[in-house]
């Protein structure tokens, strides 16, 4: 039994549109993602950098405030001292004590000089007053301070090894609107920086004070030189002097690569690209496989659709799980009316219901008839004869999951068979009709002779009666003997006619011949009178040569007599035109050569007639072939059929002395008994 492997039927989604667009969006997204990933650390760095810068600015501002505050505190102390000095000059000791106090409060103060209204030094402390007098800038500051009555700073200048490190503050002294002189304080800017900037700030930043021309006048760089990355400048707000505080952080720009974030971003990005490529290849492979599958499916569907054989699958409970279009065509129902259905099926014909049910019970019990013929009822009620082949359905794991049937619509075959049967019937009918024709023509032929004989015997009898009647008492006496013989002969021929009719009928019906053991001598004797009658009319002499030891044959006697009668009549007719002394008809019988286990007896009818021309010989045995004006052309055809009907043969040959020899062979009978 064939086994089917069931493939689950399913539909594939529509194919994904091919082309570069499919990849454009994911690729753009990935690029964007990478950009963001790379931008983020840069942004973080930028933010860090900004933060540092801001921190520096704030710190710088704070340092500037500290320096300014220190100077302002010193200015206030000077102003207080100046106010006292303008009123009265203290004793020198007290003055020195106050001056010393000033120096103690701020180490940046290097020198303090008190000038009177004439510009003479009234008192001083700290560094020696400059030999060459004050610098030009300091003198300008003094003039400006006197005219504005407000303290004023000079530009930085160098002294005693310091190139530019000192700065003067001129405070004019007035009392009751009168100029009373001035106090000039000299500060060391380097000390200012060293004393007032906290160490932690100096550790992180290089600080410097710059003059109007950007010359460094003081600097502090405890943590080494600045990197020039984070810098800030801030002017110290000193009236009259232009000094700028510049800070330069020792920290460089935040480093990018050692950054853990950047590292992980790079790794992540790489991983992303690799997995994207892998995904890409996987999708490409999937699409290729899908396309191959789709082609396979299309091919299979086309195959199933073009199939003329109906296919139906059922599960183990008999529920229909699959039908192909051919099956739907056979039963005239759409697949949705069939799938999932359990018996009784919509295509079961009511008259065959019990047959289906019996078969279905067998299917449920696990035995199917591999092949059977049945009838389905199409949806329009037409019965469809089908040939069904059933086989177990086995899934991919080798599990028996149901049954697969292939169904052949055998309507055409049945129709052809029916047509064939009808034709056969017709043929038989026409054969019977032909037989009827054969019977009638044969009877017509065969009855000719007995009828002719009856006619001539009754004519003879009438003759005898007429002669006796004519005499009217004085005529010849009634020849009762002749009359009796004639009537007996007529009677015999009439019975013969009846026999002929029976024999011919049976022969034509092709039933088994009524065979009996017949001696040829008896057959010849049976027809001798008739043959002689004909022979006499044609002046033919008859010779019969049948040896007494000749074995009998198995045959229908009447038929053999008819054969002999036909052959002798043909022979007599063939000799009509020859010299009367040569008109000899011979019937000779002899034992023929052994053929097989059975012996044969040959019977020849020999004439000296005109013989048979080759063109006549060709058609000799055809029915209705005759060279005679009155001939029916049935004689030889009947003879041959009759002899072959007995299993014998009929042949003809030329008579060496002129004329023809017709010979038939018959099977020799076994029994000794002779009819
Ligand atoms: P029919 O005798 O009615 O013509 P047959 O079938 O008996 O029909 O014979 C067919 C033909 O065969 C005859 O017409 C005749 O020409 C030829 N034929 C038959 N027997 C002989 C014979 N003994 N000699 C010569 N010709 C013969």
* Number of strand elements: 23
Class inferred from helices and paired strands = alpha+beta
Number of domains: 4
Tally of alpha and pi helices = 14
List the helices and strands and how they pair.
Elements: E1 4-5, H1 21-87, H2 92-105, E2 109-115, E3 121-126, H3 136-148, E4 152-153, E5 157-159, E6 162-175, E7 178-188, H4 189-196, H5 199-204, E8 205-210, E9 216-220, E10 231-236, E11 243-249, H6 260-306, E12 310-315, E13 320-323, H7 325-331, H8 353-364, E14 371-377, E15 383-394, E16 400-409, H9 411-471, H10 480-508, E17 516-518, H11 520-537, E18 541-545, E19 553-555, H12 557-574, E20 584-595, E21 598-606, H13 614-619, H14 635-645, E22 649-654, E23 660-667
Parallel strand pairs: 1-15, 18-20
Antiparallel strand pairs: 2-3, 2-7, 4-6, 5-6, 6-7, 8-9, 8-11, 10-11, 12-13, 12-16, 14-15, 15-16, 17-19, 20-21, 21-23, 22-23
Helix pairs in contact: 1-6, 9-10, 11-12, 12-14
